[in-house]
Write the C-alpha cells for this entry.
Amino acid sequence: MPDTADGPPTAAPVGAGRNLLFLREEELRLAQDLLFFGYRDFTAGADQILAELDLGRAHHRVLHFVGRRPGITVGDLLGILGITKQSLGRVLTPLIEQGYVLQSTGRNDRRQRLLSLTPKGEALERRLFERQREWVMRAYREAGPVAVEGFRRVMRGLMGAEARGQLERLEQRPRPLPPERPSPQIGRGPGEPPSPA
Amino acid sequence: MPDTADGPPTAAPVGAGRNLLFLREEELRLAQDLLFFGYRDFTAGADQILAELDLGRAHHRVLHFVGRRPGITVGDLLGILGITKQSLGRVLTPLIEQGYVLQSTGRNDRRQRLLSLTPKGEALERRLFERQREWVMRAYREAGPVAVEGFRRVMRGLMGAEARGQLERLEQRPRPLPPERPSPQIGRGPGEPPSPA
DNA sequence: GGTTTTGGTCAGCGTCATTGACACATTTTT
DNA sequence: AAAAATGTGTCAATGACGCTGACCAAAACC
C-alpha cells in the first residue's frame, strides 16, 4: 500500500478521484489478505493440539460453544454453528463417546439434550483456549487498546445480522451453569453401563 | 459480558485482580467468537457466487492471489497458500482448463510456469471482489476510520512471521504485469490449438 | 388422538486438504 | 559431459468436514 492508512493520499492531487478509488480497492484487497492470513494463523495453534488428539477444528468449535454456554440444547448449538444436524452428529457423537461432552435430558422439555463439558472436556477446551489466548494477547499488546476496540468494531460489522444476534445472546448469559448433578444422564460415553431404565 | 468493552470493570474494587482476569478471559473468548462469526460471514457472499459456478473457496484464493500478483510462479503461490502441490493442482488445473488462468513459461527459468488471469478470470475475480468489497465497506463505514486502522493492526498481529513477510511482498509489487503477449504459452485451456512450436 | 417439535441415524455425495511416490524438463554444479 | 538440484505435474490413497434425503422415536402441544 502506497499510503499508510486512512488519510487522503499523499500523492499528486491530479487524478485524485481515480487515485482514491485505487486506494479504496487496494485497501479492500488488503482486508481480504489480512482476514485470510490472520484467520489461518489464529487457528493454527489450536489445530496443532487437536491433530495430536485426532480431533479437528469442528470439534473445537463444539467444545468452545458448549463451554461458553453449558446446558445448551442441540438445536441452539446447530443454530450457532450454522451446520446441519448430521454434520454436528459426526463431531458431537465422538466427543460424547470419548468423554469430552456430557448429555443430560432437559428438565422442562425431556426431548432436549442439554450439552455440557465434562472435566476432561473442560481441560481440553482450556488447553486450546490458552493456546489461542497467548496468540491473541500478543496481537492485542502489539496493537494497543485503541486498536483492539477498532478490531472489535470492524469484526462485528463483518458479521451478518443473524450472527450478531447470536453473539449478543452468547454475551448475555455468560455461564448459565448446567444441572449440578446431571441427573438423568443419557447412555453412551465411557461412564456407567446403560442404566437399567 | 458484564462490562461493555475496555474500561476498568465498574464492579466493586474488591477482588479486582480476579475480576480483571475474568475480564481478560471474556475479552479473549469474545475475540474467538468475533473471528469465527466474522470470517464465516465475510466469505459467505463469495461462496454463494462460487457455488453457482461449481467452484469453491480454494479456487477463489487462487484467483485472488494470482490476480494480485500476475506472473507469480507455482512455487510462490504454494508458499502463500500454505498447501501442497497436489492440493493446488486440483484447483489450478480446472481453472486453467476452464480458461480462468493462463500459464506461460518463465523467461529466465523455463521450468517455471508463470500464472496470470485471463480476461474471463479477471472478470470472475472482480465479481467476487465486488461482493466482498461491499460487505467490508459496510463494516468499515459503520466502524469508522480509526477502528479500521485498529482492525488492521490487530489482524497483522494475528499473522505469523511468515505470513507477515508474504503480505509485505504482496503489498510491495502491487501488479508486476505479466508478459504482454504470453508468448510461449502452454497447452491446455480452451485457447488456440497447440502452436506449431 | 393427531400433529409438531426435538433429536438421532443411515446412506451417499462433494470439496479441500493430506502423504508418498514417481516422471519430466530444465538449470546448476561438479 | 555427467550428476545433482529445482520446478512442476500426476497417480493413488486417505481424512476432515460439510451437504441432502429419508426415516424413526420420544415428548410435547392442541
